[in-house]
UniProtKB/TrEMBL annotation:
Its cofactor is Mg(2+); Mn(2+). It comes from Sphingomonas ursincola. This is FAD:protein FMN transferase. Mg(2+) binds at residues 142, 247, 251. SUPFAM superfamilies: ApbE-like. It comes from the Bacteria.
């Protein structure tokens, strides 16, 4: 995934756990997710789907069934502001394994848009299959990292580690409590130069994911236009019971304009903090209801 991972966990002495073995288990789990869903790996299951002939019905792993189900749910709820089927577009802009020397032409973007889109997919979660309509490329980079965070936390739970904090590339989930009895506290990063108040989140059975352009520039595409999403929003942080959903919703809301993102967050009861380039901060009702606000 082009990033790093870390785990903090309370290791019960009675279990006699070997930390080296735990690291190997975590790395193996992450390697499996990459081999399943990475568009950077030419032999991944996702890349095989992208190369499949029109009409092919491809079998999905249990992991990919879960990711596709949530991806399509968020796509529908956001009218396509989140879309797992824009691999052609991300490839055009050089946001995948293929580099480009210049921005794509409007004609190229229009052609890629016509061959993309979540509504072209035929997903059968009961049979664990996905039909390739022809020439469509998946790109799960807006959700797979969040899923990986959840998967590692689940793996640790299976090993008896019910109190842990998992972080991959800035996306986090907390389970249980710290050994000192506190929850797993995480400070939300503020874009440099903006005088914003500190937002500290207690990840007790919660996850947080952030999307924006304040670190890497305008790298998130609007699936509806095919162009990078450039507007007053610079950072979106979503708090959710699972990191997969937080990741997808952060991506979707960062694509929308400010007013559209606010309306969507209120309608869908998403706990989100939205930061604008001018330093403005908006907290959704779902987030403020979770907060312990200190009096002025």
């Amino acid at each position: 995934m082009g990033t790093t991972w870390q785990v903090r966990a309370a290791l019960p002495a009675a279990l006699g756990l070997d930390t080296a073995r735990l690291r190997m288990l975590v790395q193996a789990r992450l390697d499996g997710i990459v081999q399943d869903m990475s568009h950077w790996e030419p032999q991944s299951n996702l890349s095989r789907f992208n190369r499949a002939h029109a009409g092919s019905v491809c079998a999905l792993s249990p992991d990919m069934v879960r990711v596709m189900a949530e991806a399509l749910s968020v796509a529908q709820a956001t009218d396509g502001a989140f879309d797992p089927a824009i691999g052609r577009l991300t490839d055009l802009w050089g946001l995948g394994p293929n580099t480009v020397s210049a921005p794509p032409t409007p004609g190229d973007i229009g052609h890629a848009l016509r061959g993309s889109g979540w509504t072209r997919l035929q997903f059968d979660p009961l049979r664990s299959t996905l039909r390739q309509p022809g020439g469509l490329w998946l790109d799960l980079s807006g959700i797979a990292k969040g899923f990986a965070v959840d998967a590692v936390a689940d793996l640790l739970g299976q090993q008896g580690l019910n109190h842990c904090l998992v972080e991959i590339g800035g996306e986090c989930v907390g389970r249980g409590m710290r050994p000192d009895g506190d929850p797993w506290w995480v400070d939300v990063e503020n874009p440099e130069g903006l005088p914003l108040p500190r937002l500290r989140v207690a990840l007790h059975g919660l996850a947080i994911a952030t999307s924006g352009d304040y670190l890497r520039g305008a790298h998130t595409l609007d699936p509806r236009t095919g162009y990078p999403a450039i507007h007053p929003i610079t950072a979106v942080s979503v708090v959710h019971p699972d990191c997969m959903s937080a990741d997808a919703w952060a991506t979707a809301l960062s694509v929308m304009g400010l007013s559209a993102a606010q309306r969507c967050a209120v309608r869908e009861h998403v706990a989100v903090r939205i930061v604008s380039r001018d330093g403005g901060e908006w907290l959704s009702p779902a987030l403020t209801s979770m907060m312990d606000l200190e009096p002025a």
